[in-house]
Structure formats: C-alpha cells, structure tokens
Amino acid sequence: MAESATKSAELRLRCTLPGGLHARPASVVAELAGKFAAEITLRNLRTAAAANAKSVLSLIAAGVQHGDEFALSATGPQQEEALVGLRRCLEEDLPALEAAAPAAATVASAKLPLALASARVAALLGLPASAGVGSGAVVHLAGIELPPEFASRPAAGAAQEQRSLAAAWKAVRERLERSVEGAAGATSTAADILRAHLAILADVSLRERVEHEIERGASAVHAAARAGAWFAEQLRQARSVLVRERALDVEDVTRLLLEELCGVELQPRLDLRAPSIVVAEDISPQQFLALAPAHLRGLLLEAAGTTSHAVLLARSAEVPVVTGIRDARLLLAPGEQVLVDGGRGFVARCNQADEAVQRYEQRERATLAARQQRLARFAQQPAATADGRKLEVGANVSQPEELDAAFRRGADGIGVFRTELLFTRRAELPAEDEQFVVYAQAARAAGGRPVLLRTLDVGGDKPLPALDLPREPNPFLGERGVRLYPRFEAVLRTQLRAMLRASAAGRVWIMLPMVASPNEVRWVRERIMEIHDELRAAHIAHDAATPLGIMLEVPAAVLAIPELVAEADFFSFGTNDLAQYFFAADRSNAAVAPLANVRAPAFLRLLKQAADAARAAGKWIGMCGDMAADVANLPLLLGLGLDEISVPAALVAQLKERVQQLRVAECERVLNDALRCATVAEVERLLAETRSTVARPIIEQELISVTSDAQTQQEAIADLAGLLFASGRAEDRGAIEDAVWQREQVYATAMGFGVAIPHCRNDAVLADSVAVLRMQQPIRWGSEDVRLVILLAITGAAADKKHLQVFSQFARKLMDEKFRDQLLTAPHSGAVLNTLSEALQLN
Amino acid sequence: VRERAEDDNEIESQRRRSSMKLVAVTACPTGIAHTYMAAEQLQKAARALGHDIKVETQGAMGIENELSDADIRAAQAAIFAADIEVERRERFDGKRVIEVGVQQAIKDPAAVFAKLG
C-alpha cells in the first residue's frame, strides 16, 4: 500500500498542436495542473528537457514542438485525476482552442510587384505578417535600459527587498487585471495577451527565481532584471520560433516589475507625430499598444516570427507588418519615406520613385477595400443557396470573450456554447448568478439570434476537479454528459436555473449532451418544469417556452428520433462523437481514427435517416461537429436539408459565401449519389466534382471596370488579378500575375483592334472567370496600343468543359468588329456585362 | 438582259474555278483563346473568298471538329496556323501544307490564303 502511494503515475503523449506547446496552450496546461495537489512534471522526450507543469515559463522552455513525444508524470494526491484531466486537455480541448485561434495571414511570396520593379523602386523583402499597405516616415524603436541610478543602487537587506518585490508584484498584477477588464470590449487578442502576461506574473518558477536572487543578496531591481533575463534567454534558445517570441512577453513583464520598483517609466511612450513606419528588432505587445495608433501606418521587424502576440495585435488593429527584414534598422534611416506591404511582405523606398509607389499604394488600397467590403457583405447576410434555401451559419464558442468576434464575423447564432470552461477553469463550481451573467451576456450579444447553451458535458474522460466523478475503465462508454445528471442533480438545477433566467435576455435554447434514450430527456424536462414553477412563483423573468433539444452523438439516439421527437424540440449532430461511437473507433487513437470518417457512405446513411426523421416531425436540426466546418462537405449538408450548421467563427463568412454558390437540387443529387457509393474515396470524388460543376458565373459586374486609370501593362495585369482577389476568385494574386506574364512572354496577347486578351490556366484561379478593364487612356501592350483588356482565367486541374467551351466561343466572338465596338463604347460596366452575357448566352 | 446573265454566269464560273477545298488546324500554347480566334478568322476569310474550309482546333478541350482522312484526302491543301507542334501531323503526309503563326491568321487571314497561290 505504502509503496503504491508514493509511486508516481506517468503518461506519454505526442504533441498534435500545430505550433507546439507555446504560450497560449502552455498557460491552459499550467492553470489546470495548478488545480491538483500532485507534483506534475513534463519531460520532452526529444530534448530530455524537464518542466514543472504548473509553470507556464517552465513549460514553454521545454520546447515541445508539433510531433514531439513527451511524458507527464504526477506524484502525490490526485495524481491519477491530474493525468486524466491533462490528457483530455492536451488531446481535445487544446487542439480545439488552437483551431479557433486567429489564423496566420495568407502567405504570399515575398516578391516585388512588377509595377514597382519596372519603375526601379528600391525595396527590402521580408515575410508577410499582417496584411495591408501603409506609408510614412521611418521611426526606430530602441530597447530598454535600466537607468544607471537604479543599476548601481545596493540592496537594502533581503527582508526589505522581498517586501518591495511583493508590493511591486501585487501592483503590477492589479494593473494588468484592470487592463484585461478594459480590453474586454476591444479586440479579444489584446485581452489574451494581457492574460498571458498575468500568467507569466503568476508563474511559480519566475517568482521563485527572483526571490532566490534576493536571498543571495541582490536588490529586488537586480533580482527581477536577472531572473527575467534568464528566462528570456532560455526561451530564446528554443528551436521553435513561437517559443522564442515569448521571450518578449517575459521581458515585458520584467519591465513592468522594474518600472514599479523604480517608480519611473522605463520605456518612454513613443509619440508618433506624423504618419510613421516603426522599425524595430522586435516589439513587445506592451510596446505595440503604446504606439500612437493614429499615426502608426506600419511595422517592420528584423525578427522573423509572424505569430508573436504583437503581430496578432497588429492584425486585429489592421496595421500592416513585415517581419524578417534583416538589418532593417541599419538599412532604413530615421525619417526616410517608405511603403510597407504586409500582405506581400516587402518595404519599398519612396524617395527615388515617389509616383510609382504612390500609385501602387492607391491601387492596393482600392483592391483591399473592395475585398473587405465583399467579405463583410457575406458575413452580415443570412446565407441562402442559389435557389433560395436558407441555412443558418452559427459559431461554436467556449467562452464569453469569443462572442463579440463571432457576431462580428457574421454568425447567425451560437450553434453550441460549450459551458465546460466555466466549470473546469476553477476549483469550485460556479454559482448560479455567475453562470447567469455569462449566459445572459451571450443571449444579449446575440441580439435575437439563437444561442444553444449546452449543459455541462463532463464525466468519464472529462474530469471536473470540483465534482467527485467516478473513475471508469472505459470512460467514453461511461457516465458522461446527461448520464451524470441524476447523480449531480443540484449542479444541473443550478445550471438550468441560470440558463432559464438568461432566456429573458434573448433566445436561449438548452441542449443536452450524450442523450441515448427518451427517458433521459424526459427526466431533464421534468426538472425544467419544476424550475419554471419556482421562477414563476418567485416572479423571476424567464421564457417559459425555452426550447429543450439534444445533441445527436450516440447512434441509438439517431434511431430513436421517432420517440425522441415527443421530448426534444430540436436536434444538433455532434459528428465527432457520433462518428466515434458509430464506427467504434477512438478518434484520439491514430491507429483507428481514420475508420471514423464522416464521409463514409454508412455514416451518411445514418445522418440521412436522422435528418428525415427530424423533418418528418417538423423539428429543427443542425450540426455543430467538425464535419460542418469543412467547406467541401457543404453539398452533403444542404442535401440533408439541415436548418443550421455551426463552425469556428473564422470560417463563417467563407461558408456563407459557399452556400450561395450551391443549389439544393444539385446538393440532393450529390447526397443521393453519395448514399449509393461503396467507399469514402467514391464520396470524395463526387465532392471534388461538385466543386467544379457548381461554380460561380464566369462574369459578374464586380469583375468589370470601365474607368481604369492603369498606365502600364504591369498595372493592368495587377489590377485584373486584384479584381479576381477582391471577388474571392483567387487568394494568391502573385501566382495569377506570374501565370499571365508567363503567357505574355510567349508573345503579347494584344490581338490588334485595340484589344488584349491576357489569359492563364492556374490552380490559383478558384473559379473560371472573365475580368475586364477598359482604359481611360490607351496603354502599351507589347508592340500595340490597347484600350480594352480582357482576362480569361481558368482553374487549373479541374477545368470545367462547359466553361472552356464558353471561353472558346468568346474568343471567336471577339473577331466580330461589331461586338468589339459594343464593348469599347458601352456606357458603364452594367452594359459591358449585358453585352458579354448576351454574346456568351450566359443568361 | 441576256448579256447581263452571261456576265453573272461568267463571274460565278470564275469563282467556282478559283474556289478551293481546304482543311486547316489551329493550335496555340494555352489553347484557351488564340486557337479559336484563328479558326474563326480562317473560316470568315474563306467564306469571303469563296473557299470551302474545315478547321480543326487543337486547344484546351483537345481536338475538336477533327479532320477525317477523307476530309484531308479531298482537300487541295492544308493550313496550319499554329505556335506549337500540330498533333497527329502524319495525317497530312504528302499533302501540301501552308504553315503560319496563329497571330498571322488572326491579324491578316487574307494573306494566309494568298500563300495558296
């Protein structure tokens, strides 16, 4: 017995996070680890580096990268629970949180646009980090130095220095906490970074090291400076760029502590008095926030990272950033005028070729604004198919901080609000009022859109420190979700009461996890009726008709829908668990996970049966699992006739756009064909074909400009690629331009008659397109002058035969003088569109 | 009146004498536009000149309006308006072939026919 009590538990895992265990996930792990009494150590098996799992700094310094194997060992009370919880956190919660984190900017090849290159504009190339263009005067940002009077001050004795340290620590923490509250309304990235700083401040290893330095005779100032420098140095030695960038966060926190200890501001606020491009080796989030936003037009960093917290802040503030410009501070003198293009990753000197750069900036601004406007249009509109079927596109959220971003990105509702984080991020259960505040905030933020609040989904493999949950040999098949409620009725009642009270603030729907039988729903329904009565008796506002629905994640529930419809008001597929249970394949086990493929015909038949049964009873049915987040699956989901899908907020606009390009009849045909397929591969082939057969129109008004002021062939080709980019028909403009130029090099595509027809066939083209520019003044194209430039852009691999046919007809039609004259004289882009549509019989 | 009719007959028979039966192939590097523009121009010009022409296009959609051996046998000459190698060229072995660039066929198709002599 005694022996087994001291024996530690160990667990081996492989890191599946794309960016490794960097600050964001590390802080979640450390927070969770801190809730358990056991000592917990993480060992990176690649480097043998060991870390205290309760320390963020120690964890990130262990340098766990994507694919690394690592061991977690726990010794002491709760050692088993700790490991079960950490496993769950590392394998499921973190991958989901990381997927929801802001995506990196679209990667463009750092290459000087031809319009600038041909004007002999001098430029420095780097890495695109935050899209957008901006120009201004170079301002250098210098690092911080400890003022000499503090550097030379001797220690006043350990006890007193420790007291000063404790006071400073507390003051900084309170200041950061206030800033977090202040930033809550602003971008959530700003709040995230402040939270990361708070986590560093709460780090046990950092505090221990500073105190240790003081015990050895250092002043608090020196101790903090040394400890901060030591951790920053450790982080800088890491192989992962993500981890190296965290060194700045440590320096930031150290600076705050030093400022508090010294009573002076060490990093004077950089006052930008005119449009400026700030050039620095690297920049901390605090420094970024201190730059006057009114005059900050761009940021150039020598460091090569593109995911540092400061870069994330810049992205949400829409400040262009280029990183990885070596020796930028040496090459760019203060005061020099430069242009930063953060989407392509270069900085151009304006001095010698002012006009070319200015023209480039104007054109880029126009293109970016057009694209922004278009995406916003999709985001804020309800999504409907080309033939008029509505599909709500909601967002999945796990914490109230995500709500603003979700609605800003166009979510039609919250398809699942996972309430677990309210419970698992703390040692005690959240009180009713506390839950009420969060749920009501969600309902209010939704402004009349539905919010599907999922009741607590824990148990089995999802432990909860505050509840004494049973340990089970087979947790996925054990007491999870709704199955735990009778045992923890008080916990459920508290949550249901909070949810019902929130229903007075908006449209709250209550959703139960892991339902397998109608009895489970009936039992919860009875509790809800009792709570209704209590609330009514106490005159507490709530919506007595609050819908109660269930997640469809147990196959038995799917086949029980004919009975469940008597108990449940709505259904939502949880495809991750549904697939895992349906195929009896653990999705966290790489050896069998591929079995649980949501595109398998058998799984599609299951979904079809459920959707038909729900519809037959007139019930609402949606989907909030990963299957909905893959845009390629959309035809299947529309074919199923779902009312709603719910996805990470970042994908909402893209899915809404895709919905508009599909037709229900076509989707139903695709689904019916898929249901008859024998293999996943066959279904995937069908979906690939759907991508090309259900395409956008070849020509639209937004692809036509009749007032182009392009002056050169370079500008015209860049503008045409810009039209495709702005209309969502291409992401990589550079690839389109390159392909067009490649063709021009064979021989210029000016065809006489004042018309040029550049063309390309390339994978960067996402939809077969015709784009038209009519020049105010003729421009030189090869050896001819042209007034009309028509780009024919064709998708690479899966080019549509019908479209190729249209292009060939179009080419023939251009030989007709009358047709060319019509295009050259049409009074506006609408008339050009009509002429083209008629000629190509597109109507 | 009678004289006038004889004149017309004379023009018509002249036309018939100079009219030729021709085949052509057009092909350009990407096969998206110029192949078809050249085909269109050759057909238009042939109509104006009174020639009978069948044009095969070798473009992004592959070979279209394919020339059969009988088409080629019946033709007095072939025109290749191509910037790339014409596919299945062996079909034309022994046939008189006028080769021009695609651009020439587009910009000045009459000159292409003039080469037929």
- Counting helices, strands and paired strands, the structural category of chain B is alpha/beta
* Major protein interface: A-B, 24 and 20 residues
Largest sheet of chain A: 8 strands, mixed
Helix segment tally of chain A? 34
Can you describe this structure?
The complex is a heterodimer of chains A (843) and B (117). In chain A, helix 9 packs across helix 10 (220-236), helix 26 (634-640) packs across helix 28 (664-675) and helix 28 runs antiparallel to helix 29 (680-693). Chain A is α/β, with parallel strands linked by helices. Chain A is globular, with a radius of gyration of 30 Å. The model of chain A is unreliable at 1-5 and 102-109 (pLDDT under 50). Chain A starts with a helix and ends with a helix. Chain A is 46% helix and 16% strand. Chain A is built from 34 helices and 26 strands. Chain B is 44% helix and 24% strand. Chain B contains five helices and five strands. Chain B has helices at 2-18, 34-49, 69-74, 102-107, 109-114; strands at 21-27, 52-59, 62-64, 77-82, 97-100. A five-stranded mixed sheet of chain B has the order 3-2-1-4-5. In chain B, strand 2 and strand 3 (62-64) form a beta hairpin. The relative contact order of chain B is 0.20. The model of chain B has no long low-confidence stretch (mean pLDDT 86). The interface between A and B is medium-sized, with 24 and 20 residues.
